[in-house]
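Example record

The entry below shows one chain as it appears in the dataset: sequence first, then structure tokens.
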Amino acid sequence: MTQPVTHTPTTTRTVAEVLIGSLENARQGKADVVLTASLGQSVSISNGFTQFSIPGSSDWLANPANDADSIACNKTHDQSGEAQRPIDELLWTLGYYSFNGSLSFGCRRDDVVKMVRWPNYTRLPHDSSFHRISALLTSRPTSIVLTSKLLNIPEEEVYRFYNAARYAGYVKAINRPDSEIPAPRKHKHQSLIQRLFKHMSRSS
């Protein structure tokens, strides 16, 4: 069972945040790929962007990144011996470990948020307050800032929940259409990675 995470304040970008840009290209191209970080850890995406696997623990996604960190993209290998998990669990994890306690791209404090799916907290990184946030947003849609006040929870914790849940598709902002939400900013390596995805899609 996954235990609540204790956070140390930091302004450093994480490996998860570097990985997000590369994963967006995989989502758009529906490509089966292996994304490998600078230190050799990898994430395999399979079955048309519906499943993933990570050998061993995923804790390395929370590690600080540096300017040398990049993501290599390769065609997927044989995954017959690896446990496959739903892709939304990876998306939650990346959103959770990114943005350093700030809201992610396109998310606002005044977003009125509705819970559309309860997270499986036995498998996902989370704060101890997340069960209470989930219960509130399930019972009635509430803004991010009001959620913090009603539950007496620091806004940074609610931001972390919203980043993870929004990226995984577990919540929806009901006070504005998705078309108003801008796309994530591209990482400096993303244009190269996007070209690789297009090439792989044509050759598959």
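Notes for this example: Confidence is low (pLDDT under 50) at residues 181-201. Residues 15-100+186-203 form one domain.
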